[in-house]
Write a structure and sequence with these properties.
elongated, Dna Ligase, domain 1, single chain, 8 helices, alpha+beta, 32% strand
């Protein structure tokens, strides 16, 4: 399990291991650039189901089609383009898992669920330089994406001849019927009573399942009380075999059986050796048997699920939680979903020490220094909450000496900014992050604030400043990373050990001060104190004076005679 972290109110974390921190303001609170890692769950046409994936800026620009099933400039990639206006890395999760994969019988299936899978085609053709090999080519949207040259393979044709069918012991009204073609036996069970499990047993000359290679497949129709099971022998059988349809509950009961004899026609089919194929960015190949020569195997049946529930969002939060990221967004317009994100981000910060920030749409009731609520809706194409994607990415990559005040919006979304001029300061004072139009076509952020409003004497309005939170989060994450990896369980709790810990913190503060993030820094602002009641703990106290940026300019102009 990870080391402990979060907030502390007393020295009461024994026997846990970790680093705990408490944010307070004393007078004026006061970095290098953050890492630009943005997280969030979105709907995708083409992406992994039920798992976290990572995309970098360069990967998206160079391989958008492979990653999303759509070209870089396609409308379906609008929100990723918004994110990568500023983010370096996107930690993603597909909300709309549960579609269907496109498939091509005998070839394989699409790598992911979704409609783009229907744009896949595979050709299997003789290699022009070696007739004992085949070129297996994968196309997407008509463009060649992968070509593999594999050996030729041959397949013996196994011919089954049906013999005697004999009913067994009755199990209520259950029945089983046999059908066969040249190389496959199908057993269909009907009227299977509740609690009984259908299966098929194969008996050879030496006994059950003895020396009878092949493949058993339960088709799992299971619609009501019907089941279909198929058996495909993998090699000729020496003599007669018996196929038994059985039901199992307290014991195994044979309800029907049939005898078969087997013969073989050698090398009646040739093609590419499927066992040699390697899955690519688009196709998961069937790696059994062979694939016959064909200039155009098409994939069909792929579909994209569009249903998203609150549980999907919760699954996304839980999946993303173990990963490091600076900012996360929620582009839902449902207040219950927003609250789900707010409560979980608050828990991550206060109980796990995971210092990240959340961006939501129109939810100032969060009243939390880690949550920023954008008031402006998106108009036209897209979801009215989609602006959170751009903003979270900007915040994740901003230089810590700077802030998101009066920053130009450089994305593609149409933003509603027609608020009366006198209304904007009021909305900002209520905890809304605003965009406004200062000139035709020049949309900018207003003030870099979050939703925190419950001010107290030791948690005042400085914690409503996003720059302050970003700097504090940076300091904490740096300290936690160093302390947890180098000091916990290793550093001696004596004067020399505490000086070592003090020096680590001083190095972090020095870097921030030299880059203009901190004001009036002194190494005496950091103390590492012994806790007499606990010889396994120390108390780190640090004062942070964060440099401000100019938000207001007052000018006196004098006219001289």
């Amino acid at each position: 399990m990870p080391l402990g972290g979060g907030e502390f109110k007393a020295y009461n974390k024994e026997p846990e291991l970790g680093t705990w921190i408490l944010y307070k303001t004393v007078g004026l609170l006061t970095s290098p650039q953050t890492s630009g890692i943005t997280a969030g769950a979105l709907n995708f046409d083409w992406a992994p189901d039920n798992e976290v994936f990572q995309i970098t800026d360069s990967e998206f620009k160079n391989n958008a089609e492979v990653l999303t099933g759509h070209s870089y400039n396609d409308p379906e990639n609008l929100l990723l383009r918004e994110i990568f206006r500023h983010a370096t890395t996107y930690i993603g999760y597909r909300l709309n898992s549960g579609g269907r994969k496109a498939k091509s019988s005998g070839i394989g299936e699409a790598k992911y669920t979704g409609k783009p899978g229907n744009n896949i085609a595979v050709s299997v053709l003789k290699n022009i330089n070696n007739e004992e090999r085949y070129d297996v080519s994968t196309y997407f949207n008509g463009d060649l994406k992968d070509i593999q040259t594999v050996p030729e393979a041959s397949l013996d044709e196994i011919v089954l001849n049906k013999g005697t069918e004999k009913s067994g012991t009755a199990v209520e009204t259950a029945t089983a019927t046999f059908a066969f073609d040249k190389n496959k036996i199908t057993v269909q069970f009907s009227n299977v009573p509740e609690g009984y499990k259908p299966s098929v047993r194969i008996k050879g000359q030496v006994g059950i399942l003895a020396f009878i290679p092949g493949r058993m497949e339960d088709m799992s129709l299971s619609n009501g009380n019907k089941h279909i099971i198929t058996y495909s022998p993998g090699a000729p059988i020496n003599g007669e075999m018996t196929v038994e349809a059985v039901l199992t509950k307290d014991k195994v009961t044979v309800i029907n059986s049939c005898t078969y004899t087997c013969s073989v026609n050698e090398a009646v089919q040739t093609g590419a050796d499927a066992t040699q194929l390697i899955d690519n960015d688009y196709v998961i190949f069937n790696k059994t048997g062979l694939i016959e020569e064909n200039a155009g195997y098409t994939f069909t049946g792929g579909s994209t699920d569009t249903t998203v529930t609150g549980q999907d969002h919760l699954d996304a939060i839980n999946a993303l939680e173990p990963y490091f990221f600076n900012d996360i967004f929620c582009n839902s317009t449902d207040d219950s979903v927003k609250e789900l994100y707010v409560s979980n981000i608050d828990r991550m910060r206060r109980q796990r020490g995971k210092y990240c920030r959340l961006w939501v749409y129109d939810y100032v009731q969060a009243d939390n220094e880690a949550v920023t609520s954008i008031k402006n809706p998106v108009t036209g194409v897209g979801n009215e909450a989609d602006l959170v994607c751009w903003a979270a990415a900007y915040s994740s990559a901003i230089d810590l000496a700077n802030e998101m005040t009066n920053k130009p919006y450089d994305g593609e979304l149409e933003i509603y900014t027609d608020y009366p001029e006198v209304q904007i300061p009021l909305l900002v004072s209520q905890g809304n992050f605003m965009f406004h139009n200062i000139a035709l076509g020049d949309v900018r952020t207003y003030t870099d604030i979050n939703t925190f409003q419950s001010f107290t004497t030791d948690r005042d309005d400085q914690l409503a400043n996003n720059k302050v939170i970003r700097v504090l989060d940076y300091i904490h994450n740096e300290e936690e990373s160093i302390i947890n990896s180098q000091d916990i369980g290793t550093l001696k709790n004596n004067p020399e050990g505490r000086v070592t810990l003090w020096n680590r913190c001083v190095d972090i503060f020095e870097g921030l001060w030299k880059s203009g993030v901190l004001r009036d820094y002194s190494s005496s602002d950091i103390e590492v104190n012994e806790i007499e009641s606990d010889k396994y703990a120390v108390h780190l106290v640090q004062s942070v004076n964060i440099e401000g940026t100019v938000r207001r300019v007052y000018i006196n102009s004098y006219v001289l005679e």
